[in-house]
Amino acid sequence: MSDRLKPLIGLAATRALTRAEAEVAFDALFEGEATPAQMGGFLMALRAFRLDALPEEPWRNGGGRTRTIATRMRDADAAGSAAQDEGPPWDWRISVATIERGGPFSSFPGVDRSSMLLDAGRIELSAAGEPTLLMQSPGDVVRYRGDSVTTSAVHGASQPLSVLNVMTRRSAAQAWMKALRDDSYLAAQGLALLVLEGSWRVVDGSMGAEDPDHGLTLHSGEGAWCTVSAPGSRAIWRVERLSPTGMLAAIELDRS
Question: How many domains does the chain have?
Fold first, then answer.
């Protein structure tokens, strides 16, 4: 086990390493000091969160609120060209929106969007020239383009409805979102989870860990996300349902 690498794994889970810290970490990796578990921990810095602890941002039109879970910004070179392609300054963004009343969403040219209904109720999404999309049960997912102005209509709910959203800049990344009810493997360059019901355990699927003392346990309203820092590598998570029933929102992200 590398004494040099151990404290850096914890730092990498909360912030970007400085150049000096990164040099120490890579020296430890390439000189063979790190155990396989430490290599996985460094390359896949996992960030856990509680949804209700994330700050809320009110919509400008007053129709709802957003909690941002994670954002991957463009690198320095790509960010310099953002004004030329009129795209956003990020490659992808994951958030939960609470819709208090129906109305138009903001348009995002060059962006693909996916939304998952989290509460009991029904939401219809419509845009000029596009088919109407319907989410009517928790876990339902729809995909649509951010280029058009999409309008939401809320039905059958006595309180605001929450929706998990992932947006990807079309030329930079693509995303797949699904609701899981049983154990599963996930593999991508970026992964995100949000527990909708029950309790789940997340382990590094590349290590084949079966020890119940390993991994991260998440309960309803909690989640985790990561990105892989090594080019060409993918994170592999095994998610295990610990409760008799449960539902987990899972997002896999890859560069285009």
Answer: 2
